[in-house]
Amino acid sequence: MRYLMLSDIHANREALEVVLEAAGKDYDEVVSLGDLVGYGADPNEAVKAVRALEPVALVRGNHDKAGCGLIDAEDFNAIARQAAQWTQQELSEDHLAYLRELPEGPASVGGFQIVHGSPRDEDEYLFTPVEVSENFEFSPARLLFFGHTHVQGGFVLNREGVVEEMEPVHGEGASRLEFRMEEGSRYFINPGSIGQPRDGDPRAAFAFYDEENSVIEYCRVPYAIETTQKKILDAGLPESLSRRLAAGR
Ligand code: ZN
After folding, report:
1. DSSP assigned state of 184
2. Which has fewest Cβ within 10 Å: 82, 113, 206, 219?
3. Does the bond joining 106 to the residue before it have cis omega, within 30 degrees of 0?
4. Is residue 72 scored above 90 in pLDDT?
């Protein structure tokens, strides 16, 4: 089974379209790690596109919860809160209902697990080896996919018991980097964010997982950032949400 791993689309239609075009028919099943909406100007289109893909497994993100009114955005910073309120007004009733029904992680699929934040807490950010170390006991899986940080890569717990960060270094343009998982190691993998990367690379990020061959493939694709930026400004969303897309921060 070959999985297409999608995370943190954040209502960015242009980025999602380019990702799906690049993925083509090169997968059997789709998995979604949450945050379909929030920040971007096309929440209905993002939800519609993901629903059409019929993911075999999916979990909700914090922005999905805020965007459908499941939580109020009190804990969000002012900019994220403003975007969440705008998103809730914009979403159709049908899409609001869909977001409200999204499950909390962890979810199991194939021989692996998925979460939005961490296995311990769906809203926790996994930025450091220490944070990851504390979370291995909360998942029995050899492989876990997470999102939420918008940083492509992840962490490996090697056979010596050391947690190391994985930082894929891509070439120009559309780029794919693959690696084979080692026997006896455990992996927390982040496919990166499609709609709002924060790892310094503005290209849309996603990944494939080939379960038979234990191969992860990190992908980046350029998209029409200016179009997305203009939509954000035209929608009256905060200007910084437009600006950060070009920086990938
Ligand atoms: Zn997110």
Report:
1. T
2. 82
3. yes
4. no
